[in-house]
Amino acid sequence: MPLSCRDHYKVLAVLEREAGFTEQTFPDPEVVGGIVGGVRRGRMRRTEYYPFAARPVRVLLVLLVLVLIGESLYMLLRSDPEPAPLDCAKGTLTLSGSTAFAPVLREAARQYEKTCPDARIPLSDDTFKGSVPGLDALDAAGKKEKPAGVQGLGDRLTFSDGPKSEDGRPQLLPRPVALSLFTLVVSPDAGVKDLSLKQVRDIYAGRTTNWNQVKGNNLPVHLVSRNPGSGTRTTLELRVLGNKRLPGVTASDCAAMDAAKPGRCEVGDTQTLLDTAASTPGALGHSEVGAATADAGIQPVRIDGYPATLEGVDGGAYPYWQTEYAYTYGEPPADSLAAGFLRYLSDEVGKDIIRSHGDRPCAELAKPLLCRPS
User: Fold this and answer.
1) Diameter of the chain measured on Cα atoms
2) Secondary structure class of 92 (helix, strand, coil)
3) Whole-prediction pTM value?
4) What is the pLDDT at residue 134?
5) ∠ CA 134-140-144 to the nearest 5 degrees?
6) Per-residue pLDDT, 1
7) Low-confidence spans in the chain with pLDDT less than 50
8) Fewest C-beta atoms under 10 Å: which of 97, 273, 359, 367?
9) Three-class secondary structure of residue 331 per DSSP
């Protein structure tokens, strides 16, 4: 009989020889025993020892394990889709604005639709027409729908490279989203990869008209620029050219420029600019940095030896950058698709998408509301 810790017992054996016993074998001994104090009123019962648990406990544990296995199999085999996250909104969202920031928005829209199956963000080739046209479209939509009370439109967003002009559109509210990088690009036959800030300004001012004047090849300079209203162009004029405007257009169609003379033409979007710069001898253009890849057939240009990097912007060495703003017409309802998509851009997945295109999320800067280099 196993004993509990510190329990003990004693056995007293008294052996007596029976007088006159002459047999060769001894009979079984007669055992007389007693327990001081008694057990269960003098009655004893056999006890068992289980090193793991008693029988009722083991039965209960087996039942619990079977229940857990059943629930796990049910979750694995069930066909119901997982519910959408709490921040998902329903409806259709219209995006417009910057062509430079469009690649970020296209990817973010696709990912948001996968995460939120009840959301629709239709995108087409003419969705993004430029910062100023996007602001105009948002302002016109707001004036047409005239949202009641203090609430604004919950189904429209436009994105601008830089803030809106100070005159007009008082209902458009800005929210900084990212620090965007831009770069100058040249056709490879120009023979240059680096220009000083002074050389860039001389080219756009018309003082330098051939690439051999900056130790490049003997080709006239052909400037390929974005149309007025482009945030990329406005940023070029403001931050790179010292707030000086571009020279006049010499050809309404880039394909019609005289190959033997310097000139300038304009195009409507970033991708068209890159394609035109790649196919025009001696071309110089401008683009957001994420689109200016080697596959585009153009050469990014360093400025004063510095490439378009966030480190160069932070150090004040690289000048071609701008704050990307998201604009709403009034304050969108908190449960609207516009508000949900803005929160998505500032969340981890949205920030990863912004970083993957060479830009920096405002939330990662020292002063997110200003969203300027540190």
Assistant:
1) 148
2) strand
3) 0.74
4) 95
5) 145
6) 59
7) 40, 42, 80-81, 83
8) 367
9) strand
